[in-house]
Design goal:
Elements (H helix, E strand, L loop, with lengths): L1 E4 L2 E7 L9 E6 L8 H10 L1 H7 L10 E5 L7 E6 L10 H18 L4 E4 L11 H18 L5 E6 L2 H14 L4
Parallel strand pairs: 2-7, 3-5, 3-6, 6-7
Antiparallel strand pairs: 1-2, 4-5
Length: 179
């Protein structure tokens, strides 16, 4: 599923983010940046040990912020590491922090001329963010960013599993009628 926005494309696919031949993949990292489970572990395994060595020099990352490394053995030339919030009850600034994680990632891509990005559904795995709420925050944040940043040509959400894909498709159809 695709939506054209200001000369760019917002796309949804079901698959594995480590297989994406784009300028940068966004990693749903933990604050240490030293690998973990889910998307984070998959990216670290696919990129190889150089990624862990580089991440060890970065001093971690705060929730809502983003840091950049090379992609090493990934088909993407860079990895943008961002930390999403752990979901408690929705009353502790989780929505703002999740939106900021996407905004920080997109801004870093713009700063470094990374025009084609692959993003996961941040915080919806072990961090427990409810999928439908997270999808709305993610997609509305990206749509808003693309409306004012024509340097970003492609944002591809790479979703693991049919439930995530279907949920993101439903939300994108609401935000981008006619897709």
């Amino acid at each position: 599923m695709q939506c054209a926005i200001n000369g760019g494309v917002l796309e949804l696919v079901q698959g594995n983010i480590v297989d994406q031949a784009v300028d940068a993949v966004v990693n749903a990292a933990n604050p240490s940046l030293l690998g973990g489970g889910g998307v984070d572990g998959a990216i670290h395994r696919a990129a190889g040990p150089q990624l862990l060595a580089k991440c060890a020099t970065l001093g971690g990352c705060r929730t809502g912020e983003a840091k950049l490394t090379p992609g090493y053995r990934l088909p993407a030339r860079a990895v943008i590491h961002t930390v999403g919030p752990v979901y408690k009850d929705g009353q502790h600034g989780e929505a703002e922090l999740l939106a900021r994680a996407y905004q920080s990632s997109l801004a870093l891509a713009s700063q470094h001329g990374l025009a084609r990005l692959a993003l996961p559904s941040i915080s919806t795995g072990v961090y427990g963010y409810p999928l439908a709420e997270a999808a709305h925050i993610a997609l509305s944040t990206v749509v808003s960013y693309l409306q004012t940043h024509p340097e970003i040509a492609l944002v591809r959400f790479v979703l693991w599993g049919s439930d995530s894909f279907a949920t993101y498709c439903r939300v994108l159809a609401e935000l981008c009628p006619g897709t």
